[in-house]
Structure formats: structure tokens, C-alpha cells
What we know:
With 194 residues, the chain is of the alpha+beta class. It has 3 domains: 1-71; 73-122; 126-194, Head domain of nucleotide exchange factor GrpE (Nucleotide Exchange Factor Grpe, Chain A, domain 2), CATH 2.30.22. The protein has helices at residues 3-71, 75-95, 102-121, 183-193, and strands at residues 124-127, 139-146, 155-160, 162-165, 168-171, 173-179. Mean pLDDT is 83; it is low at 17-21.
Amino acid sequence: MTEEEKDKVIYEIGNEETCGEEQPDKKEEESADIEALKKSLSDLNDKYLRLYAEFENYKKFAARQREDQLKYANETLLKELLTVMDHLELALQHSSDDKVSDPLAKGVEMTLRELKTLMERCGLVSIDAIGKAFDPNIHHAMSQIEDDRVDENTVVEEFRKGYMLKDRLLRATLVGVSKKISKETNKTETKEEE
Length: 194
């Protein structure tokens, strides 16, 4: 073997060793790239799932909003008609004493009945208050009335009727609420009786 052939063999062996060293580096780089891509894919998948869940929640919220809007679409109109109904009830109360206006009272009563029926079909429900416990969510206390015959905080008088539209308060009932007679009032009344 000549000197040139020896150098050529040594050169080829040296290249093989350096090539062998470069291959593990390439494999490490490729595996690092693969890991980075997997992490990136995982992050993007997580973002996608969160965005999808958020969008689904938005769709449900929008559907509930649309449903409520349809359910309570007549709220403003019914609120305005409550005043008309109050006036018709007052007209009936004032005409009950007068025999001359009896036919007029019957006409007003029929109109009021028809209006109540129409409003009930739209979801209006009257709130029964007399004899019930005072509930600040549906009653508005206008006065306190001393009364020992009923429990304290019981509605004993109704000044204006309250209404609900389906399950939402449309107008609170104006009420008088009972309270126990104070000891001072009892003493004053006892002294007056003597």
C-alpha cells in the first residue's frame, strides 16, 4: 500500500468517525424539534378546546337571552295597562253606591273582566297579599298597623294590587303590615278606659 492509499484510508476512516458523531447530534436536534412541535400542538389544542367551550357557553347564553326576550316581550305594555285596570277597579268601587249608574257599572265590570282575562292569557298573575307573611320581594310596605289578632309582619291591608309576569315581579303590592301593639299604647288605652 502506497502512502497515498494509506492517507486515503485514514481520511475515509476519519470522515466515518466524524459522520458518526454528527448523526447523533442530528437525531437529538430532530427529537428536540419533535418535542417542541408536540408541545406546540398540545398548547394549540388546549386553546382550541377552551375557545370551543367558551363559544358553546356563549351560544347557550344567547339562546337564554332570546328566550327571555320572547317570554317578557309584553312586559312594558302590561305594565302600562295595569294603570288602566286600576282606574277601572276604582270606577267600580265608586259606582257601587249609586243605583243610577248601575248599567254603566256593569259595562265597566265587563270591560275590566275582559281586560283581566286578556292579561292573564299573556302571563299576568295577581299577587294575593292579605293574610300572608310580609315578603319584601313582592310587597312594598306603606304603613304598619297595630293589631294583636294576627301575627307580627302579616299583611292586613292592601292599598294597591301587585302582579307578576310569569315568574318575574311586574309591580309590587302596596300593603299595610301588622305589628304588635306597643306596651305604651296598651297602658294609655287602659288608663283611658278607667
